[in-house]
Amino acid sequence: MTSVERLPDPSDPLPFFVYGTLRPGEVNHDLFLRGRTASEEPAVLPDAALYDGPGYPYAVHRPGTAVVGELITAAPGEYGKLLAALDQLEEYQGPGRPGNVYDRIARPALRPDGTAVRAWVYLAAPLIARDLRESGSEIPGGDWFARR
C-alpha cells in the first residue's frame, strides 16, 4: 500500500470516508455525527473491498475494487472531538498498535465527479484483514446498504 498515514493537523483537518454504520440513516451516524458535520457527500474508496462483520462492515485494501460511502467533513470546532470519538468507536489506539480493530489511514476517496479528496478511513487492522481475505464474507459491490 502506498498510502502514508500522518498525524492530523488541526489547521488542515481531513474529512472522513465512512462506509458502514456511520453512513446517513445508520445508527452510529445519529449517535456520532448528527449535528457535528459541515457536509456529507457521496464518494467511493478505490482499491478497497468490503466484508460483512458482526453488525458492521470492514473495509480491506484490495486493488481493483471500490467501497461505496460518504465523505464527512466536520463542522467548525468539531474536528478534534469527532476524531477522538471515531477513534474510540473504531477501536483505533494509534498507528501500528496491536490492539487496533481498525487502522485509521489517510487515503484518496473519489467524489461522483472523479475529484480525489484525501480523507481518513478506518480499514481492518492487518490480522483481521488477513482473516477476512481468507474466509470472510465479501459484500458484493462494496456497498453496505446493498447487503440487505
Q: What's the short version?
A:
This is Gamma-glutamylcyclotransferase. InterPro entries: AIG2-like_dom, GGCT-like, GGCT-like_sf. The protein has a three-stranded antiparallel sheet. Strands 4-5 form a two-stranded antiparallel ribbon.
Model description:
With 148 residues, the chain is an alpha+beta fold. The protein has one domain: Hypothetical upf0131 protein ytfp, CATH 3.10.490.10. The chain has 3 helices and 5 strands; from the N terminus they run E-H-E-E-H-E-E-H. The strands form 2 sheets. It has a 3-stranded antiparallel β-sheet. A two-stranded antiparallel ribbon has the order 4-5. Strand 2 and strand 3 (57-74) form a beta hairpin. It is globular, with a radius of gyration of 14 Å. The model is unreliable at 1-6 (pLDDT under 50).
Mean pLDDT: 91
* Biggest beta-sheet profile: 3 strands, antiparallel
CATH class: Alpha Beta
Helix and strand succession? EHEEHEEH
- What is the SS-derived class? alpha+beta
CATH architecture: Roll
What is the beta-strand fraction?
35-45%
Distance between the termini: 31 Å
Give the strand tally. 5
What global shape is seen? globular
Summed up, the domain count is: 1
Helical fraction:
10-25%
Low-pLDDT runs of 5+ residues are 1-6
List the helices and strands and how they pair.
Blueprint: E1 16-18, H1 27-33, E2 37-52, E3 57-74, H2 79-89, E4 102-110, E5 116-124, H3 126-135
Antiparallel strand pairs: 1-3, 2-3, 4-5
